[in-house]
Amino acid sequence: MDAQNSIHKNLEQLVTKHFSTDYQKPIAQHTQDAFDAVKQQVSTSLAGDHPLIFDSCCGTAMSTGIIAQQNSHALVVGIDRSAARLSKEYNKSMPKNVLLVQAECSDFWSLAVAEGWKLDKHFILYPNPYPKSKHLKRRWHGHPAFPLLFSLGGSLILRSNWSVYVEEFCMALEFGLKSRPVEKLNQKPIMKVVEPKTPLTLFEKKYQESGQSLYQCEFRL
Ligand SMILES: C[S@@+](CC[C@H](N)C(=O)[O-])C[C@H]1O[C@@H](n2cnc3c(N)ncnc32)[C@H](O)[C@@H]1O
If you average pLDDT over residues 104-118, what whole number do you get? Predict the structure, then answer.
């Protein structure tokens, strides 16, 4: 099937199915090890009343550093599966309140939920779009791990240069709220166009320089 240019017709059915089953994928050993390596520090920070922020799919972690500077009281965990992107080549100096973790996000989220961690903010900036219709299940809102975002909580901020991704993500949050009314809040996910003064990420910079529109979904879980 070809590129998709409107909301996927199976979105509601897929999201509802994921909310009716527990996420049970076995955890990859490398992510378990990465989680174990930071677990103590994160738990101590939470116990000391420091807010916890995730920057999932952080890539080169440019955003992780900026978010940490803007939230100096918080511990900011940047998560990406690519060792090359997380390498020192990009991250020569990071604020002290940053932890960078090479891990599979879905597994890391699952372990964080099991540990009872609650987020203050959760950034997912420019995730891989998987624009072909047949790849809906690879997008975060079509992934079986999507309900974990609800359990982690916090203010969720997702950005993409593909409006359909952000529209679908907002709709999927609403479908999730139907399935988990106990977590329902008196508000809806908001989609808006953003024009950041200074780019948060390298992808954001690239898209801005080429004049593309940038979309954001914002929701407090
Ligand atoms: C398009 S890049 C965006 C990176 C960065 N947020 C930015 O805007 O510059 C997507 C990133 O997501 C990471 N990624 C994709 N799927 C992932 C997963 N399941 N777990 C962890 N990282 C993932 C990739 O390694 C890549 O660095």
Answer: 97
Which pLDDT score, from 0 to 100, does residue 72 have? 97
**From the CA of 186, how far away is ligand 1's center (Å)?**
31
Alpha helix locations (H) across the chain? 11-19, 29-47, 62-70, 83-86, 105-114, 146-152, 163-179, 202-209
C-beta atoms surrounding 161 within 10 Å: 18
Residue with the two structure tokens 């409006």: 163
Q: Is the CB of 107 under 6 A from ligand 1?
A: no
| pTM for the whole structure | 0.96
Q: Is the CB of 203 within 6 Å of ligand 1?
A: yes
Q: Whose CA is closest to atom 25 on ligand 1?
A: 82
**Region for residue 139 given its phi and psi (left: phi exceeds 0; alpha: psi -120 to 50; beta: otherwise):** beta
Q: Report CA(126)–ligand 1 centroid distance (Å).
A: 7
Q: Is the pLDDT of residue 93 over 90?
A: no
* Residue ranges of domains in the chain, CATH in brackets: 11-220 (3.40.50.150)
Quick: pLDDT tens for 52-63: 999 999 999 999
Q: Whose CA is nearest to atom 13 of ligand 1?
A: 57
pLDDT tens digits, one per residue of 139-185: 999 999 999 999 999 999 999 999 999 999 999 999 998 887 655 56
Q: Does residue 104's CB lie within 6 angstroms of at least one atom of ligand 1?
A: yes
Query: 80 in ligand 1 pocket by Cβ < 6 Å?
Result: yes
